Amino acid sequence: MSMESREAKSTRGDLGRVAAECRTAEGQPEKATVNVPSRSSAPPAYEFPEFVPHPLLRSGHAQTFAGAYVPHRRVAYRAQCHTLHLPDGDRTALHDDLPEGWSDGQPCVLLLHGLGGSHLSPYMVRVSDKLRRRGVRAFRLDLRGHGAAWDWAQYPGHAGRSEDARAAIELIQRLAPRSTLSAVGISLGGNILLKLLGEWGGDAPAHLIQALIVSPPADLAHCSRNMLNEVSPLYTRAFLRSLRRQMRLRKHIMPGLAQLKLPRDPENLWEFDDWVTAPLSGFKNAVEYYEHCSSCHVAHQVQVPTTMLAAADDPIIPVGILETITLSNSTRLHITEHGGHIGFIGESGRDPDRRWLDWRILEWLDAGMRTGISTIDPVR
Is residue 358 a contact partner of residue 126, using CB atoms and an 8 Å limit? Predict the structure, then answer.
């Protein structure tokens, strides 16, 4: 889950152009037989520095809204858009930010966004740009029905689409067979990534060396109930506005959507998932959907070194969920006192800019690759 920013909305006109430039991934070379560094099963060693919030943004709500709506430096779209074919015949878009001079064998990172977001979500744009400037090839995945691929999918995207993340990782392996891959999942994308890692267990591909999961709704039912009982209605309205807009735009694309008979407009996320997401995705109701798609049920099986990051004052994802689920020995949880939901706007002077999370992603990536794997260029 992540709230769509005003800046992301203002760039929707670019989506058609980007989608038109997407090329099919068919015809790419088959997965090469190459040697990549062996993956450690030990928990990641990176130690997060203290997050000190901006003095005007000390509450979780303030961090959450500022994270979504405070503008950032505009970054021109330079990516190559690959059409990603999914196992059920649907398609989505994978945006490839290839640094100048990059060669196979240098590191890659996969980024997955949250609910209502896309490759144009501010954190996706900022992080991919910072990675590209440091010689890291970043891939931004549009979750099914989002971003440049909003009108491509006949089936709905949802919190359990781990098969889509798997398809992206497999394509990246074909595009860069000698490179190691790190994966970063934000909010809903974090649940998808964590679910995939748990489903893989010890069978994860060797080139996937580490994962970072940020503020994931790992227990979907708990998070949905939290939105009903405790969270400001502003968040519910923001999410429902985005979801209803998708319904209107995609009725002509998704046959099942036009045939749905709703008793009224959903008034909360539970009703939306019960009346729309679940039946369109083959689930009996929201309860079955949440049970099947929550990553908390498989988190104990993860064997890829994984770091989970969340804020204690997150108003959308109750941090107690992450503190009580059973994690594997390969997973480490770090909780900050402040930060809200994907906010993490810090005081000045500690990093080159106030976006604390961006710089931690870079440092985490570098720390994870120090075990015999080439590091990224110094932060500048």
Answer: yes
Cα distances (angstroms) measured from residue 219 to each of 269, 280, 322: 14, 21, 9
Q: Where are the alpha helices (DSSP H) in 93-232?
A: 122-133, 162-175, 188-200, 220-229
Measured at the CA of 229, the angle between CA 228 and CA 234, to 5 degrees, comes to 60
Residue type, 242: S
Both 285 and 263 in a single domain?
yes
- Longest Cα pair distance anywhere in the chain, in angstroms? 59
pLDDT under 50: residue ranges of the chain: 5-12, 25-33, 372-380
Q: What pLDDT shows up at residue 230?
A: 65
* Statement to judge: residues 103 and 188 lie in one domain: yes
Q: Which domain holds residue 108?
A: 14-22+41-219+296-368
Q: What is the pTM of this model?
A: 0.89
What is the DSSP pairing of strand 137-141 with strand 91-97? Answer: antiparallel
The predicted pLDDT at position 15 comes to 60
Name the residue among 368, 362, 367, 372 with its Cα closest to residue 135: 362
Per-residue confidence (pLDDT) for residue 363, from 0 to 100:
95
* CATH number of the domain enclosing 62: 3.40.50.1820
Q: Kindly tell me the burial class for residue 55, based on how many C-beta atoms sit within 10 Å of its own C-beta (0-12, 13-18, 19 or more).
A: exposed
Amino acid at 188: L
Cβ-contact 76, 137 below 8 angstroms: no
